């Protein structure tokens, strides 16, 4: 879900975001689909939280920058434990969108992209509840970044 601010250069999404090696990964999905859980597993593997539950996105020329809304900065919901304080980053460039759904396509189309605030962003679809979901997200980001360097 995207909240329209009336400004074509900014939006707030119901999503979670982390930074992997400085690259922003936006995790989208329905409530209960595993956004926070996948973020927690990525953080355990070295990622840094940007925002949980809602993410502010600002278009800066040809880049999209991810930040937490002020009231959610540094907060991560961990089921069965509650809201936990966590280090976070702000103003991180979006490099990959991960859409969560149960039973994603086994062989998706190449060059999956989504349009966000008029900018095309590489995307992939994962099942957050698969034990390999964090590794798959990292591999998808790595492939995206390699493609960006060679094209």
| Proper CATH architecture | 3-Layer(aba) Sandwich
Kindly report how far apart the N and C termini lie. 32 Å
Radius of gyration: 14 Å
Structural class: alpha+beta
Mean pLDDT, as a whole number? 90
Please summarize what this structure is.
The chain contains two helices and twelve strands; from the N terminus they run E-E-E-E-H-E-E-E-E-E-E-E-E-H. The chain is α+β, with helices and mostly antiparallel strands and about 150 residues long.
Descriptive notes:
With 151 residues, this protein is α+β, with helices and mostly antiparallel strands. The chain has one domain: Rossmann fold, CATH 3.40.50. It is 19% helix and 42% strand. Strands 1, 2, 3, 4, 5, 6, 7, 10, 11 and 12 form a ten-stranded mixed sheet that branches. Strands 8-9 form a two-stranded antiparallel ribbon. A hairpin with a 5-residue loop joins strand 1 (2-4) and strand 2 (10-13). Helix 1 (35-44) crosses helix 2. The longest helix has 18 residues, at 133-150. The radius of gyration is 14 Å and the shape is globular.
What key attributes describe this structure?
alpha+beta; Rossmann fold; two-stranded antiparallel ribbon; 19% helix; ten-stranded mixed β-sheet
């Amino acid at each position: 879900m995207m909240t329209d601010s009336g400004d074509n250069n900014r939006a707030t999404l119901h999503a979670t975001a982390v930074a992997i090696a400085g690259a922003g990964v936006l995790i989208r999905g329905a409530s209960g689909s595993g956004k926070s859980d996948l973020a927690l597993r990525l953080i355990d593997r070295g990622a840094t939280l940007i925002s949980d539950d809602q993410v502010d996105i600002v278009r800066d020329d040809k880049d999209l920058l991810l930040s937490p809304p002020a009231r959610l900065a540094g907060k991560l919901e961990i089921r069965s434990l509650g809201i936990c304080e966590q280090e976070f980053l702000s103003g991180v460039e979006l490099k990959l969108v991960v859409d969560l759904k149960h039973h994603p396509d086994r062989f998706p189309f190449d060059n999956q992209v989504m349009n966000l605030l008029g900018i095309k962003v590489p995307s992939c679809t994962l099942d957050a509840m698969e034990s390999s979901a964090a590794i798959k997200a990292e591999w998808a980001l790595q492939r995206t970044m390699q493609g960006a360097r060679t094209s």
